[in-house]
Design goal:
By secondary structure, the chain is of the alpha/beta class. The protein is built from eight helices and eleven strands. Strand 4, helix 2 and strand 5 form a beta-alpha-beta unit. The model has no long low-confidence stretch (mean pLDDT 93).
Length: 254
């Protein structure tokens, strides 16, 4: 499986309730989507990188800096569905697998994408994602963080916005020192034929309860391999995040 032809897809919707026009916002002289593309194309495991958008303004901009882009429907309920349409438009038979790269991570580390692709190569269910070991109890009580439990093979048992597992014995000291809690990193990789099966699934009860799309897959019996990463992620989702991103960009060595 070392010769997998993997396509990196960056979903980039123009509409965003908290940060309108997010793909085109300026971060230190470059747009958000430009920075994501620049980082993604450095990943050695990806054979190609394409932006999937539903807006001509984003498409024109990507073309202006030499990026590859494909126009997709504005009606997709998730990035997974957008990735599948993009794969079809580009010729699904040309690629063995797809990596769904978050379009709001302007400083994504290429090595992290390599880690994800490595996890996919070992994934018996044809799906992989990443996690980090929790080092702060605040992550255990933040519903914005998604926690994961796995089996002995590092395939996901469950994803939750609650702290799982529950520690029955209170004990002493921080909870994260008494169990290796894992928090989710929102990057996904799929074998192409598995992706086609995932988008055909209807929303599941667990998915709707926790508002987590990946529970649809688990609830339907798909194995999701979890790879570990030490690389920190930074998503730009609010005006405050944008200001922080601009600060980070200004600190980067030219």
């Amino acid at each position: 499986m070392s010769d997998l032809r993997i396509l990196g897809i960056i979903p980039a919707r123009y509409a965003s309730s908290r940060l309108p026009g997010k793909p085109l916002v300026d971060i230190g002289g470059k747009s958000m989507v430009h920075r994501v593309v620049e980082q993604a194309i450095q990943c050695k495991a990806l054979h190609a990188v394409v932006v999937a958008t539903d807006d001509e303004r984003v498409a024109d901009h990507v073309r202006s800096f030499g990026g590859e882009v494909v126009m997709t429907s504005p009606d997709h309920p998730s990035g997974t569905d957008r990735c599948f349409e993009a794969l079809q438009l580009l010729g699904g038979e040309c690629f063995d697998a797809v990596v769904n790269i978050q379009g709001d991570e302007p400083f994504i580390i290429p090595a992290q994408l390599d880690e994800l692709c490595a996890a996919l190569r070992k994934a018996p269910g044809g799906i992989a994602t990443l996690a980090q070991v929790v080092t702060d109890d605040r992550d255990l009580d933040d519903p914005g963080e998604v926690l994961i439990t796995t089996d002995v093979n590092m395939d996901a048992l469950y994803f939750s916005r609650a702290a799982i597992p529950f520690l029955r014995d209170a004990g002493n000291g921080p909870r994260h020192t008494r169990f290796r809690f894992l928090k989710h990193v929102g990057l996904y990789a799929y074998r192409s034929e598995v992706l086609a099966r995932l988008v055909a699934l209807p929303p599941s009860k667990l998915e709707m309860a926790e508002a987590l799309e990946q529970l649809r897959w688990v609830e339907n019996g798909f194995k999701v391999r979890i790879g570990l990463t030490d690389h920190l992620s930074f998503c730009v989702d609010t005006p405050a995040d944008l200001e922080e991103a601009r600060k980070r960009a200004s600190e980067l060595t030219p």
